[in-house]
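Anyone up for a design puzzle?
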């Protein structure tokens, strides 16, 4: 039996030097079902490198996400929690994998970013639920892109200037 994998990915080209990939995933409740948001973060420049949205959390999704990161940003050390699918995906892609421990600086940083993303995504779905009988996560994907856009320094500066003009 062949199952169609429906996932969205967005890897961003950032104007900074990428030194490591700090990667984590979180479950979000969308339309009463679980979906997984994968996040790649550059800790030194504090930039989101990419999102991945899927209905499953496994080795295949982790490998696709990491492969798309490598394609755009090159090969870097991958820091994750100790989930086995990350270890296998890094081994498959021949990437150096390191784990961060509970309480480490990397752990605190990525968990804070992921928690903000999770809370805002679930709130968005609460206020703007999917109108289709079978939710394909399109509305959540658009929200993630908007979330990323409004967290960019350039856009924040433009919004602040506009606010100054209105006052």
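Challenge accepted. My sequence:
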């Amino acid at each position: 039996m062949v199952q169609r994998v429906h996932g969205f990915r967005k890897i961003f080209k950032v104007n900074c030097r990428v030194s490591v990939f700090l990667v984590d995933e979180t479950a979000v409740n969308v339309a009463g079902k679980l979906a997984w948001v994968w996040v790649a973060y550059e800790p030194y420049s504090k930039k989101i490198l990419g999102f991945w949205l899927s209905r499953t959390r496994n080795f295949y999704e982790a490998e696709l996400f990491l492969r798309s990161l490598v394609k755009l940003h090159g090969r870097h050390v991958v820091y994750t929690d100790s989930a086995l699918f990350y270890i296998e995906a890094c081994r498959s892609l021949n990437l150096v994998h390191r784990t961060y421990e509970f309480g480490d600086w990397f752990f605190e940083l990525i968990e804070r970013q992921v928690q903000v993303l999770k809370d805002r995504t679930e709130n968005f779905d609460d206020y703007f639920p999917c109108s289709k009988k079978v939710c394909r996560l399109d509305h959540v994907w658009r929200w993630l892109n908007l979330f990323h856009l409004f967290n960019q320094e350039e856009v924040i500066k433009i919004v602040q200037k506009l606010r100054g003009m209105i006052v």
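A detail worth pointing out: The first strand starts at residue 8 and ends at 11.
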